[in-house]
Specification:
- The two termini are 21 Å apart.
- It is built from 14 helices and 18 strands.
- It is globular.
- The protein has a ten-stranded mixed beta sheet, with helices on both faces. Strands 5, 14, 15, 16 and 17 form a five-stranded antiparallel beta sheet that branches.
- Helix 1 packs parallel to helix 3, helix 3 crosses helix 4 and helix 7 packs across helix 8.
- Strand 1, helix 1 and strand 2 form a beta-alpha-beta unit.
- The chain is of the alpha+beta class and 488 residues long.
Length: 488
């Protein structure tokens, strides 16, 4: 619903579009620190903690990191169906919630919610700004990560197995639907230098979203590897939001975390020399300790001494954590060296269709009836010579994660209820729908007591990766800044 406001936007702090010169703190003048918060750690993250940060975090920057590996490829499919789509589905709601408090307090926003269509996302932000009466808001769009034209049909080697007999992009033929390179911090720093209040990007490396404002504010050179590594560590710790404050850390009775229902998202206070402290809004739920920081520091890091990003090769191996106070941890000891010569690009390609059907059984003999139902479906598909590329038959709560009835499940007490899940990959949509129907038929054509049938089919978009020369990608990046009130 549209709503209008007559007051224009006000700011409590003024900003210069040029980087602040580096300086040595003195005893007479306290060292300057930049406060950066994380408002989202994935596409479907909660909105309330972001509002809490915007209202009470006293932030210079609020970052929303919302892209996983397959997110852009799926968004590209949406854009193929409708050119005005392809950005994060919660973008409008998030902007409705945080634009006004951020504008009021002088907090700038950086987000990769542009996904496959940053230009359309910028239009959404501009429309929300107009509804809120923030007509002077400057919105920047960062483009250039879409490298499909540089990748499709080439003989670039695939870095990870695509699940079929393919070693180069050309082997995937016409199934390729997207290719997006991981950009670094530089285009975002350009947008900030042009005075952007909101920066909307597509695929940018997660920590680069947080590194960029530090490079801009402190004037860090793009080749000062130790400083860039420390800024990258800031981003890596913040990028998953609630994971740092205990959300994914929690294990009741072993690693207790208070008030998870009100889990607060983290923020970092960063000094000009790259030293920083991670914390959260006082009174918010969750817990931030050296233990939660350690788990996040190691998250998705294959080699702590060589964490590769578009900006720097960061070395976390000598990181030192100091517990300063409740929910305050200082991080030092981060260093780095020269960045890689290439940029990683995620390639999305069509890989058949996924189908799954589920049905529940309860009461005495529930597990046996569910196993019999699985055998029935499997036998019917075999008899019909049904072309399944791969299939799984799982009893949720029994062997869906720990595969098979091994020692761990053989001695367990039989559950009073169990849910059978049949999942398969097929070549066509019709085949996928047929599999779901076989599960649904168990209602009257299988063991007694089956109920709660669900079924779903969808196209499967798989992901592989290639490496591209940095200069080839960066030469095509672009930054455009427009003011709300004028359609981007």
């Amino acid at each position: 619903m549209s709503r209008t406001r007559t007051p224009t936007r006000t700011r409590t702090r003024t900003r210069t579009p040029t980087p602040t010169p580096r300086r040595t703190p003195t005893s007479e003048k306290p060292a300057r620190r930049i406060r950066i918060g994380c408002g989202a750690g994935f596409a479907d993250d909660r909105v309330d903690p972001a509002v809490e940060l915007a209202e009470h975090g006293r932030l210079d920057y609020l970052v929303f990191e919302c892209l996983a590996e397959r997110t852009v490829a799926l968004a590209q499919l949406d854009r193929l169906r409708d050119p005005d789509t392809g950005c994060n589905e919660w973008l409008e709601e998030r902007m409705e919630a945080v634009l006004e408090p951020c504008a009021r307090q002088g907090t700038r926003i950086i987000t990769n919610m542009g996904a496959a269509n940053p230009t359309a996302a910028a239009r959404v932000v501009a429309e929300v700004a107009r509804r809120l009466g923030l007509d002077g808001l400057r919105i920047a769009t960062v483009t250039g990560d879409d490298v499909l034209h540089l990748v499709k049909g080439t003989h670039l080697p695939l870095l990870d197995g695509p699940g079929r007999a393919a070693s180069t992009v050309s082997d995937l033929h016409e199934t390729v639907v997207s290719a997006n390179a991981y950009l670094g911090a530089t285009p975002i720093t350009e947008a900030l230098a042009q005075g952007a209040d909101v920066v909307v990007t597509g695929r940018v490396a997660d920590p680069s979203l947080f590194l960029a404002p530090l490079m801009h504010e402190f004037g860090w050179p793009p080749t000062d590897w130790p400083l860039l590594a420390r800024g990258t560590a800031v981003g890596h710790l913040l990028e998953c939001a609630g994971q740092l404050t205990g959300g994914y850390y929690a294990d009741p009775g072993t690693k207790d975390v208070p008030d998870l229902a009100r889990l607060g998202f983290p923020l970092a206070e960063v000094a000009e020399d790259g030293s920083f402290t991670v914390t959260k809004v006082p009174g918010s739920g969750g817990r931030l300790t050296p233990a939660t920081v350690t788990e996040q520091l190691l998250y998705e890091v294959h080699d702590p001494s060589a964490y590769l990003t578009p900006d720097v090769t960061a070395d976390f191996s000598r990181a030192h954590l100091t517990h300063l106070a409740e929910d305050r941890v200082a991080v030092t000891g981060i260093t780095g060296r020269e960045r890689p010569l290439t940029l990683k690009a995620s390639v999305g390609y069509r890989d058949g269709f996924l189908a799954h059907g589920e049905i529940s059984y309860a009461g005495p003999g529930a597990v046996a009836r569910a196993r019999e139902a699985a055998r029935i479906v499997q036998q019917r598909l075999t008899q019909a010579e049904f072309p399944v590329t791969e299939a799984r038959y799982d009893l949720i709560g029994v062997d869906a994660v720990h595969r098979g009835a091994g020692a761990a499940t053989a001695t367990a007490v039989e559950p009073a209820e169990v849910r059978l899940r049949v999942a398969a990959r097929t070549e066509t949509l019709l085949q996928a729908r047929r599999l779901g129907r076989e599960v649904a038929s168990l209602w009257l054509n299988g063991p007694y007591g089956g109920a709660g049938v669900t079924r779903e089919t969808r196209e499967n978009i798989a992901i592989t990766s290639v490496l591209l020369p940095r200069e080839l990608v960066m030469s095509a990046t672009g930054v455009q800044v427009k003011t709300a009130g004028v359609t981007p």
